[in-house]
From TrEMBL:
Pfam families: Hydrolase. Belongs to the HAD-like hydrolase superfamily. CbbY/CbbZ/Gph/YieH family. It comes from Mucilaginibacter paludis DSM 18603. The lineage of its organism: Bacteria, Pseudomonadati, Bacteroidota, Sphingobacteriia, Sphingobacteriales. One of its GO terms (molecular function) is magnesium ion binding. This is Beta-phosphoglucomutase. InterPro entries: B-phosphoglucomutase_hydrolase, Beta-PGM, Beta-PGM-like, HAD-like_sf, HAD-SF_hydro_IA, HAD_sf, PGP-like_dom2. GO terms for biological process: carbohydrate metabolic process. PANTHER family: 6-PHOSPHOGLUCONATE PHOSPHATASE, HEXITOL PHOSPHATASE B. Mg(2+) binds at residues 8, 10, 168-169. Substrate binds at residues 8-10, 24, 43-48, 51, 75, 113-117, 144.
């Protein structure tokens, strides 16, 4: 039986992908090149350091480790400025309701995100108190598809991996759930997230009945 739901943040609870894209694009432009929204898909669920490596490779630009640190810091300053204006209106449709439904049904809830800015965002959208555990980029050393972020969540909640369902919009996140021995629900397109036990277009489509089916 399912005892807990673990939620990714970017692309599942809020759509911050557009802010990450704007900030990375500004950085790329400052280095003399550009990249598309299509390329940006490859950055979803990917850590800050790894995202920069990918973007630099797209632009054919090479930088030393020290330079890369400065560039990642610059991008994050722009990103933090943008998310500082976020409000609860930016919660994705149905997301808050479904997390509340889970809690009302006696399930535990956790956040499992690669972002070091998770707490800032949860505070801005007023959802800090809806999670029994918050595992973010400041608490993990191995990025998705490594299951570390979700296994730590299960541990903090005191449940077994097989009692958890992970909600993810990134293929790396679904792979992390599978590697951790958990069930998963993909948020997005079945073409991309076909490995998940169920795919829905958003949490507004999710119900406790569907969750029960995933647990069977
Ligand atoms: C999430 C996003 C990625 C982002 C990563 C790190 O996984 O989907 O686009 O790069 O978090 O976020 P941060 O806020 O720490 O730079
Ligand atoms: Mg995501």
């Amino acid at each position: 039986t399912i005892k807990a739901c673990l939620f990714d943040l970017d692309g599942v609870i809020v759509d911050t992908a557009i802010y990450h894209y704007k900030a990375w694009r500004r950085l790329a432009n400052s280095l003399g090149f550009d990249f598309t929204e299509h390329d940006n898909e490859k950055l979803k669920g990917v850590s800050r350091v790894r995202s920069l490596e990918l973007i630099l490779s797209w632009g054919g630009v090479s930088k030393t480790t020290e330079e890369q640190e400065l560039l990642a810091t610059q991008k994050n300053e722009w990103y933090v400025e943008m998310i500082s204006h976020m409000t609860p209106a930016e919660i994705l449709p149905g997301a808050k309701q479904f997390v509340e439904d889970c809690r009302a049904a006696g399930l535990k809830t956790a956040l499992g995100s690669a972002s070091k800015n998770s707490m800032t965002i949860l505070e801005k959208i007023n959802m800090v108190n809806l999670f029994d555990a918050i595992i973010d980029g400041t608490k993990v050393s191995k990025a998705k598809p490594d299951p570390e972020v979700f296994l730590k969540g299960a541990e903090e909640l005191g449940v077994k991996p097989e009692e958890c369902v992970v909600f993810e919009d990134a293929i790396a996140g679904i792979e992390a759930a599978i590697a951790g021995g958990m069930k998963s629900v993909g948020i997005g397109s079945p073409d991309v997230l076909g490995k998940a036990n169920l795919v829905v277009s958003g949490l507004s489509e999710m119900t406790l009945d569907k969750l029960e089916d995933v647990g069977k």
